[in-house]
Each structure stands twice: as structure tokens, then as C-alpha cells.
Amino acid sequence: MKSFKKILSAILPVGFTLMLLIKNELCTEALTSGISICLTVLAPSLFAFIFATSLLLESFGSVIGPLFAPVLCPIFNISSEACTPFILGLLGGFPAGAQITGSIYSQGKISKKEAERLLSFCNNAGPMFVIAAVGASVFGSSETGRLLYCVHIASAIIVGLVTRPLGYKFQKTSPSLKDAWNSCRIPSFKSLFPKCCASSVKLMSLICGNFLVFRVIIALLSSANIIPIVPKEILNGIIEITSGILSLPVTPGGIISASILLGFGGLCVHMQTEYVLMDTGLSTTRYYIGKLLQGGISGSLTYVLLQNRIIEASGGFESISSQALCLIAAAVLLLCLLSVIAGKKAAMHT
Length: 350
Fold this sequence. Notes:
Elements: H1 2-22, H2 24-76, H3 83-92, H4 96-106, H5 112-118, H6 127-139, H7 142-162, H8 177-183, H9 189-224, H10 232-239, H11 241-246, H12 252-264, H13 267-276, H14 285-307, H15 322-348
Helix pairs in contact: 2-3, 2-6, 2-8, 2-9, 3-4, 6-7, 7-12, 7-14, 9-13, 12-14, 14-15
């Protein structure tokens, strides 16, 4: 097994390099269009919120947990400190939630078990990306984007509730908001601003760099006609979420697909998450299970909203079959059941 991994690790970079040489013009075109998307879609929708999240974490990070603890701790069965990555993860977008989780775990504020559980539902898309880039740009409606973001939050909460048994018997020490505020030490502006700028630029560079690499991978796979049975838009979204969503049709099926992809995140997002957690020693198994579960729940919730005309879309359901929707619903129920069983077993052994 080890020798196979070693051979595969050698073949992949060599094969990728050869493909770059053979398909030079295709790769150049993919990079050119990718850079344009970085400048017109990713940076405008992500950078400001990444910077705001960094500011909040550095200045009021110790207050955020106690502020939301009375609501979130009993709902998710988490510690006060664990509230911070969930709240800021919803604001900062991928992979801010995972990055903050790894940071507070490394500082010893939460246990390894709690950190790995948090990863299953705290790493989410940011509001500006969903509302502006997905809703307004792709589907021509900010209202659709806002509803998709609400579905995204709801699906993350449901995953948190499904994994709630894993939080059983965790020690939850919740300092009062007053004590947290009195002990809060806000850095000076001259040290806070450049530090937050530097960390935001670094994370934005990571996001854009991963996006460009996966943009080239998508172009190479498309030219080779690999996995033709999977719709191109869905395959692109599974590999890289932005490229996939930007190519979706303005139909109910397109909106459902966008919701599923937002919940799942895509391989590009997962590689960013793996990078920010690289030095923490945290397992990402529950993270991947959580993202699969969130994708299925998001798609099911969006289908219900479309059926009740809460979300409006042109076109019909010709691009998504009833069998596919049944499979999604069945997968969600199965994953929920397995997660609950696994959670109860884990709780019994802690």
C-alpha cells in the first residue's frame, strides 16, 4: 500500500507537468480567465469579510464565545470557546471556520474531539459570495442569494444538531460576558491593522492560488472528456465550487445544484482546509462526512422551497430527475442515521 502511494505521488506531479506542456494554450486560457474571476468575483466577495473576521478575532475574539454561548452551547452541546469559529466561519467564508477552529485548538482552548466535531459544521461559505456572486451574478437575484445563504446556515445548524451526541459529557465552562469583556485586551490600531491585513492577504492568496490550480485541472479534465456521464457543471463544482456554480443554468435544477455545491464545498475548498489544519494534527474525517451531509440537506431544503415557490426560478425541473431527488433524500436520511448512531457510541465511550 505504501509503495502504491509512493508511485502515485510520483506519477501525479509528472503527469500534471506533461499535460501542462502538451495543453499549453488551454492551460494559459484557463489561467487567464481564472485570474479575471479572482479579481472580479472572489476578491470582491471574500476579502472584505476575511479582513473583518480577522479584526473581530484579534480584537474581540475572547468576547464572541461568551456572547453567543447562552444560545449556541445548549443547541450544539459545545463549549463557550467553540462558539467563535461557528459565528466567524459564517462571516468569513471558506476556510475561515476551519482556520479558527485549528487556532483555538492549538491554543488549548478546546479539546481535540470537540475541534474535530466542530469542523463538520463550522466551515461555511461567506454571505457576500452566496448573495452577490451566486445569487445576483448567476441567478440574477440577490433575494435568491439571501435565501440560499439562509438555507446554507440552516443546513450547517442541522449538521451541528445531528452531531450533538458527540458533544455529550464535554466540559463546558462559560465565563460571563461581563468577565470576558473586562479581561478583553484590544491591541493598538497600529499593530492590529497591519497584522490583520497581512493575515487576510495570505488567506486570500491561498484561496486564489488553489482556485487557479483547480481551474487548470478542470480545463484538462474537460479536454480529455473524463467522466462523461456526470454533467459538466456538477463535475466542475465538485472539483472547484466557483467554476461549477458560475456555469449553472438559471433553472430550479441549477439552484438546487448550487445549494448542494455550497454545502459540500468542493475539492478546492477541502484542500484549503487541509492546508490551514496541516500543523494541528486534527483528523478531517468528520469534516468530510459533515460536508457531504450538509450538501444533501441543502439540496433537499432548497427543493422544498422551490416546490412551495419561496424561491422563484425560470425553467422547469428537466435538468434534475425525481429519482435523483429521491436519492438525495435517502442519502441525507442514511447519513443522519449513521451520524446519530456513531455519536451515541462515541458518547458511551467518553
